[in-house]
Amino acid sequence: MTPTTTTHPASGPVTASTAAPWTDLLAAATDDCLGVLLEGADRDWSRPAHALDWSCREVLDHLALGLTGYAGLLVARPDDRYITLFASLDPRAPVPACLEGLRIAASLLASTVRDTPAEARAWHPWGHSDATGFAAMGITELAVHTHDIARALGLSWAPPDDLASGVLARLFPDAPSGHGPSDTLLWCTGRVPLPGLPRRTDWQWDGTVHSPAP
Description:
mainly alpha; 6 helices; about 5% strand
């Protein structure tokens, strides 16, 4: 049995069962997303993020909660619930300091992914998952919410194809073919339409651990 792979230029093949390339992908996603958000740090973050009820600033807090929460789930490994630790950003802090907080949260997740045994599983409402699955969830959260904020702030940005390819293979096994990875990820997460496919109004990923392709 040979695991399916996705190539990332900085880290080589990404396999569903190997944590190390996923920590590299998470680091790359963090650098890329926080870099573009920093470009818009002086814009109006009180405006709603694209197609969301949250403000751009509130999306940052959601990201901090999510990334730290994924790390916590991998540490506690509950069978049927969220953990009781919640992370939040200082509401009085300037945007660059909040982005520093997100980098800390992403680093905590990457370290936890790296140190979690391959056989470990933790609960998530969208499927019990392993460390690579939670890394892919973190990358997805960073990518799609950076897109939401960037559009609201008038910044031109889309998830890089190499990052999108990895998470599509891991979390969206039924994603439609024939489209670019970035556009496909945005379609899978309800952000954009694709040719012949309207924008989704209801979606979720599949975090369960899939058998590798023969």
